[in-house]
Amino acid sequence: MAALIWLIVGILLVVAEVLSGDFVLVMLGAAALAAAGVSAVGVPDLVSVLVFAATSVGLIVGARPFVKRRMLGSGIRMHHEALLGSTAVAVSRVDENSGQVKIGGETWSARTLDGSVVEEGEAVTVVEISGATAVVIAAV
Fold first, then answer.
1. Which partner from 5, 10, 131, 137 sits 20 to 30 angstroms from 82, CA to CA?
2. 33-92: pLDDT as tens digits
């Protein structure tokens, strides 16, 4: 039973990393998966907790800086940075205060950068992400 709990926690942490992008949750998720592995072979729960703790510290201190440097130095844009410069389509009227656009199949709240008005169906370019709002300009 403990192995199943560790497995679920590990998978949830790895999936949650997609939202955070800071490479901490994936390290904790990997540590939980390691704890699930040792728990599955029948070791006491205290041992699996110690494996989780040791693996977490080892991965966060040892592997995380390398992985983060490698990913950030590779030029790969992650999360909201990947949306900058992308083309979107207005799904409602967008002005300097409100509106909605569709970016890659997802609907985002939006506003224009320069105070212009974009009508539904027109293409826009994402220039900034401010919280959960895409700041856009009319596509050229």
1. 10
2. 999 999 999 999 999 999 999 999 999 999 888 887 777 665 555 556 667 888 889 999
Q: If DSSP states are collapsed to H, E and C, what string results for 57-109?
A: HHHHHHHHHHHHHHHHHCCCCCHHHHHCCCEEEECCCECCCCCEEEECCEEEE
Burial class, 126, CB count within 10 angstroms (exposed 0-12 / middle 13-18 / buried 19+): buried
- Name the pTM for this structure: 0.51
- Which tokens go with 110? 């939006």
Rounded (5°) CA angle 78-121-81: 10
Distance CA 26, CA 32 (A): 10
Angle (CA) 64-23-76 rounded to 5° is 100
Contact 93, 120 (CB under 8 A): yes
